[in-house]
Amino acid sequence: MPLWIGILLALLSMALVIQLLRLKDEGVPQRVFLTGWKDSRRVWLIILGWCSMGLLIRWLGFHLPSVLFVFFAVGFVERKPWWVALTVAVLTVLSFYLIFDVLLNSDLPRGVLWQ
Amino acid sequence: MDVLAGLQLGFSVALMPQNLLYCLFGCVLGTLIGILPGIGPAATLALLLPMTYGMNPASAMIMMAGIYYGAMYGGSTTSILLSIPGEASSVMTCVDGYQMAKQGKAGPALAIAAIASFVAGTFAVIMMMLIAVPLADSALKFGPPEFFALMLWGLSAVAYLSEKSLLKALIMAVFGVFVSTIGVDIVSGTERFTYDQAELLDGIDFLVLIVGFFAVSEVLLSLEQDENVEIFECPRKLRELMPTIKDLWQSSGAIARGTISGFLLGVLPGVGPSIASFLAYGLEKRFAKRRHLLGTGAIEGVASPEAANNAAATSALIPLLCLGIPSSGVSAIMLGALILNNVRPGPMLLQDNPGLVWGVIASMYIGNVILLILNLPLVPFLAQILRIPYYILYPIILLLTIVGVYSTNNSLFDIYLLLFFGVLGYGLRKMDFPMAPAILGIVLGPRMEFSLRQSLILSQGSWTIFFTEPICATLLACLFLMMISGYLRSAFRWAIHRAR
Prior knowledge:
The structure holds two protein chains of two kinds. By secondary structure, chain A is mainly α.
């Protein structure tokens, strides 16, 4: 079955490429993935911050990278005052700690450095 | 089990205190999600899916169903007050709803939206109740070839009826099935696409794909928008909210048309509440007595799409509950909740778990009443949630995605997969690739493959089994007709053109 799935995927992808090339020749406007930095600044910065946070979890655990991420999102990306960003970050992660670690007894990652 | 006995069982399950609480929680959360632009019921269900692990399956389904149809009620609030649809299914409500708000009739608009939703939702639940038993009985005649054909038809229909490009929808469906093949083959024990990674031996959890493709991508896409709009003050007094007798009379025809069209369209795989609401509005433009007023603040323009989206949201659950086949991304997520809790979904679901199916149906009656009560006097207070800045909400949502995915298997690898699928999902959605076919693909893929292999074992390797079994052959013929219908239409038009 994986072989047939792979062949089908390849055929459909080729058909899509041909269709898009034909539409381009006819002058039909196409979706643009990379729009200007002004339009997509927020998205790419948040992707960068969120992915960095996800990768740091292994070493630092869940809570510290989360504080850093929320502070980055609110303070740097959204350009709010530093004290607003810090308050939101600390309150958010504190709420997560109380709800998940304390109330629900979830085992959120502790990180290699803290073990 | 007949309908009355089933309903009695259903109410005995739905009226248990914990299930009433879950229903209330689901309805309130669904309404709030509907009010909030930037996050939809699919993303919310994706976020909550990991939390349902370990829950009673009936309770989980009652809560998720409450969120789904609750969001249909709540979506009209921002459409009317802000001209921003809370959900895709509330887009058409913006057209006349916002105009009514500008004319000082926000209260009656909100009330008619709630009343239309209640009437349509209740009608759809009654129809679901009447159809459930005969549909499930017919499914008892299904064997492995029929299961395979039905799932293939459902998966293809979601792709074919997608609003986006057909090729892109098919690619996503096949991609979903491909991801489901990763891991160890249960029949032969061969490792497939594991690249010697121990973490991939069990395959990729569908939860990761669902959360990444729905929740994360939705948040990232919403970050591209940054609008300042005028928000109308929501009337607080009940007197100001109530429609007049004239409003009720004028909207009655629209409610009826929207309800029936929404119910019939919602059952079809891939159609869903948003398409149903568009088509219902189109019907109003054709058949309403005051159709010349549509677009200028006509109450029919609010009543019809709201009735349609609620009826469609309810009827979309019929294939899931009666046949065990999801017909949309949202019902695929609900199917995921059943799988997580070791319930085997399929045509035997009603026979094997009557309490669950009838409990969900009965809870929908209760849920519609709760939502009518919530949305009439309480919506001015619920609408205050719009004042929470989005820059506080979206980091919380992104943190929740990580917590949700990690808490299922306690695996850091799942977090890395989430990062990958989240960014991939954003990119794909930006290029107009629909997500629902991929979710259906990964959820249905293992079962499709299992049914295919069972069928070939039964027929000792002969493919003719799919054409000699009558139900299977009929389903495959419907699928074939659906695939060529576009070409048939073009050929027909060309033939007429040539004849002229």
